[in-house]
Design a protein that fits this description.
heterodimer; A: 774 residues; alpha+beta; Aldehyde Oxidoreductase, domain 4; 7-stranded mixed sheet; 5-stranded mixed sheet; 20 helices; globular; B: 89 residues; Ubiquitin-like (UB roll); two-stranded antiparallel ribbon; 3 helices; 7 strands; 26% strand
């Protein structure tokens, strides 16, 4: 066990033996000693190396592609283009996790057809005997482009007469049909860049604002930022003589890799086995598939395994960033601090294909508050940028930046402490959300109270130009189908196979739930991630869902083992199973205290008492409880250079039950740091031709440990009643509050409201100059 | 009878009110009965080819996203919403 003094606020007094402890993660030693294998580590006999030719233009019609010179090069074994990939119809299909996919757009994103829609869009790919030769072959592919003007920002794309990214894109008009499709040929409707526009209304806005004594309006703008995972996308594909395909890659869902690749290479899913490699970060962007179908197409043509791996520039230019946004809000309140009405307008850039996280933004933006009159509208806009991918609490951070800054202004105008204002208007169980449903059991008030009571909030602000800000963030959390199979070994250990790739320590948090039921040490559980042929369908590692849903599956598998062991003990003792109880890893006869047997003793006798004991859990649990995070930040602003330093940072969050508190804290710290980078430094910097000009980690500035203080954490535990141990997802919400909290702290320091992200030195100085009259 | 909340855009398309009481013991039955009351709404909520809720749409039954979709059982005091299915990151 790690030596640590917990910093927690508890609302439950349930005691556990394994749940809530901090064991060393099962995969830790392999990861820190370099034994763990990531997607690009795989090497197979006879393997070829693939490279992708990418568009040098942000928007261009592809007039022709001639691959003959590349194909004729010695050592080049295969070349593929958009002609080789299956291009399904444009209708949307559902995924089990709840994220919708349009396979035509997915296919077109993986390999361009008639148009290149962003700089870096894949045009062709080559497989050769080494990567240098593959790269040389790319230069021998002749592509004739008709360069078109790029459309880079939402406002430009929405303007009358704007250049269309897709000439035949249908506009949607419902939050329920968020990704636009392609218009039928005989449909006279004009194409559009507005893939979707939707609204949510609650109450009466006119009377709500009429009841307000104070009204605040705020508009903000955010730039596209990247998830910035350490490990670039990579995938290896190998065909077998029987037509089966094996894929090795790192992803947030190898069942998605299987399903999408099968669809795009035109074979049934039963012929594809996806093997999950370790994953070096994903944060949402590895829910999307980029390399695997292309590797499979190349491997099929070359009759040899093919590995494809992106470099960092390709990751920036061709894999999902999150949206740039334009967001505005208006909030009214009485002099006493009761919010009477709020409206929010959300415009999100989706990138080259429909499907920004604007529905997530709408779902989250006012959800933590009890406001009787609300209006939310969202726009999903296509532009000539890489297709956006999910990024930690998709949609919520940008939306919270606008509303949480406005709440700070409202608190100032009303002369009310900003946390008190939030407490006065906090949603609780039974509060109706702006999107309609009632709020379930939540810990919003407990989390706000814990923040207010934290020593950071009342600590003196030492020094000139120092300021303090607070902000809240909401995320609904997700669930989905999950599978776990547990094998009892004769030495009393348990081998646990689960279907969720482990990104944030979930081997441990899932194993702990199994160990708690069985009353064994978690070190006696050997967890592994099964491939798609070895474990039941498990939805993606996303939506902060794994410890909830896959933990639930492991809990169910453990209960299955428990029942089988009770039956075995009854058989040995020649009594009825009802006479046997299982407690803390010991089987006991209820009446005869001489009849006792440990889990380990019975494990050793499992074969002669009825064969191997196998526990199984296949679940699709509802009720993933939403959560809130509240952050406090102190900043120091250099008014000469505009540089903002984070001096102190505290993140308070409701975790339901923290199964492994260290990994909850790690998620909170990681999310906060990503939010700080989003707030202060990160952006896709593009030139007038739509080219990203900072596509390396030298120029795309993410915070390092040298830039930041320790991120202090405080876990609040308000049980989720829908989980055996009260789990809520924790991984996403900590990225939501930082931008607003930092903006509010900067205002406290220098009296300037920063309304454009990033709040880098240039933007801070410009705001200061404007305040000071130039 | 279950209380069904109709999304704003669907109200405009079908003329349905914002809330409507609809008979039915499952989500499927509720949608079928809703179609009789407000023709045209079913094709917005239901995908015939998939025999499932429209892709991208989640049905919320008594506050929770239903994991059973059309097969979810509902009660007389059930509250139902149709909202975008939110994935995560």
């Amino acid at each position: 066990m790690l030596d640590y003094t917990p910093n927690m606020v508890l609302t439950s007094d349930k005691q556990y033996k394994v749940v809530g402890t901090r064991p060393v993660r099962h995969d830790g030693a392999d990861k820190v000693t370099g034994l763990a294998r990531y997607s690009a580590d795989l090497n197979l006999p006879g393997m070829l190396y693939g490279k992708v030719l990418r568009s040098p233009h942000a928007h261009a019609r592809i007039k022709s592609i001639d691959t003959s010179r590349a194909e004729a090069m010695p050592g080049v074994r295969a070349v593929v283009t958009g002609a080789d990939i299956v291009e399904p119809a444009g209708r949307a299909s559902d995924l089990a996790e709840g994220a919708m996919i349009n396979f035509k757009f997915l296919s077109n994103n993986i390999m361009a057809q008639d148009k290149a829609l962003y700089k870096g869009h894949a045009i062709a790919a080559v497989a050769a005997i080494n990567s240098h030769l593959a790269e040389e072959a790319l230069a021998q592919i002749d592509v004739e482009y008709e360069v078109l003007p790029p459309v880079m920002r939402a406002a430009e794309a929405m303007a009358e007469g704007a250049t269309l990214v897709h000439e035949r894109l249908a506009g949607g008009h419902s939050a329920a049909t968020r990704a636009g499709g392609i218009l039928d040929d005989d449909d006279a409707t004009q194409g559009t860049n507005v893939a979707n526009h939707f609204e949510f209304r609650m109450g009466d806005m006119d009377s709500g604002f009429a009841d307000a004594d104070v009204v605040v309006e705020r508009s903000v703008s955010t730039s596209a930022v990247h998830q910035g995972y350490i490990e670039p996308h990579a995938g290896t594909a190998m065909w077998h003589d029987d037509g089966n395909l094996t894929i090795w890659s790192s992803s947030q869902g190898h069942f998605t890799v299987r399903d999408h690749t099968a669809r795009l290479v035109g074979i049934p899913v039963s012929k594809v086995k996806a093997i999950p490699m370790e994953i070096g970060g994903g944060f949402g962007a590895k829910l999307a598939v980029y390399m695997e179908p292309v590797a499979a197409l190349l491997a099929r043509k070359a009759h040899a395994p093919v590995k494809l791996a992106m470099n960092r520039t390709e990751v920036f230019e061709a894999s999902g960033p999150t949206s740039g946004t334009e967001i505005s809000c208006r909030i009214g309140a009485t002099n006493e601090g009761k919010i009477t009405a709020a409206e929010v307008h959300l415009t999100f850039e989706a990138g080259a294909f429909p499907g920004s996280p604007v529905p997530g933004a709408a779902n989250c933006v006012l959800a933590a508050y009890d406001i009787p009159n609300t209006y939310i509208e969202g726009y999903d806009i296509v532009v000539n940028r890489p297709k956006t991918a999910a990024y930690r609490a998709p949609g919520s951070p940008a939306a919270a930046y606008c509303v949480e800054v406005a709440l700070d202004e409202l608190a100032e105008k009303l002369g009310i402490d900003p946390l008190d204002l939030r407490l006065m208007n906090s949603a609780k169980e039974g509060t109706r959300r702006p999107t309609g449903p009632l709020t379930p059991t939540v810990g919003y008030i407990e989390t706000l109270e814990a923040t207010k009571a934290h020593p950071h909030y009342s600590a003196p602000k030492d020094g000139k130009r120092r300021g303090r800000g607070v902000a809240s963030g909401f995320w609904g959390n997700n669930t989905g189908p999950a599978a776990a199979v547990a094998l009892v070994n004769p030495d009393g250990t348990v081998t646990l196979t689960e279907g969720s790739p482990d990104i944030g320590g979930t081997r441990a948090s899932v194993s702990q739930q199994l160990a708690e039921v069985l009353g064994i040490p978690v070190e006696d559980v050997n967890p592994q991630i099964g491939d798609t042929d070895s474990i039941g369908f498990t939805s993606n590692t996303g939506g902060s869902s794994v410890t909830f849903k896959t933990g639930f599956a492991a809990y169910t598998a453990a209960q299955d083992i428990r029942q089988q062991m009770i039956a075995r003990a009854a058989r040995i003792w020649e009594v009825e199973p009802e006479e046997v109880e299982f407690e803390d890893g010991v089987l006991k006869h209820r009446a005869d205290d001489q009849l006792q047997m440990t889990f380990q003793q019975l494990a050793a006798r499992q074969v002669p008492t009825g064969g191997p004991i196998v526990g199984r859990g296949g679940v699709n649990p509802g009720g993933a409880g939403p959560c809130i995070g509240v952050h406090i930040v102190d900043v120091e602003v250099d008014e000469d250079t505009g540089k903002v330093d984070i001096v102190r940072y505290t993140a308070v969050q409701d975790a339901g039950k923290a199964i492994h508190p260290s990994y909850v804290e790690g998620q909170i710290q990681g999310g906060a740091v990503q939010g700080i980078g989003w707030a202060l430094n990160e952006e896709y910097y593009t030139n007038d031709q739509g080219h990203m000009v900072n596509s390396s980690f030298l120029d795309y500035r993410m915070p390092t440990s040298l830039d930041l203080p320790m991120i202090d954490t405080c876990i609040v535990e308000v049980d989720n009643p829908n989980h055996p141990y009260g789990v809520r997802g924790v991984g996403e919400v900590p990225i939501v509050p930082p931008m607003a909290a930092i903006a509010n702290a900067i205002y406290d320091a220098i009296g300037v409201r920063l309304t454009v992200l990033p709040m880098n030195p240039g933007n801070v100085l410009e705001a200061l100059w404007e305040k000071n009259g130039g | 009878m279950p209380d069904v909340w109709i999304p704003a855009q669907m109200q405009r398309i079908t003329g349905a009110p914002d809330r409507v009481q609809v008979e039915g013991a499952t989500v499927r039955q509720v949608i079928n009965n809703l179609e009789r009351m407000h023709p045209g709404i079913k094709e917005l909520l239901y995908d015939e080819e998939l025999d499932d809720i429209t892709p991208g749409l989640a049905v919320i039954v008594d506050g929770d996203v239903s994991q059973l979709g059309l097969m979810e059982r509902v009660n007389d005091d059930t509250e139902m919403h149709f909202l975008p299915a939110i994935g995560g990151g």
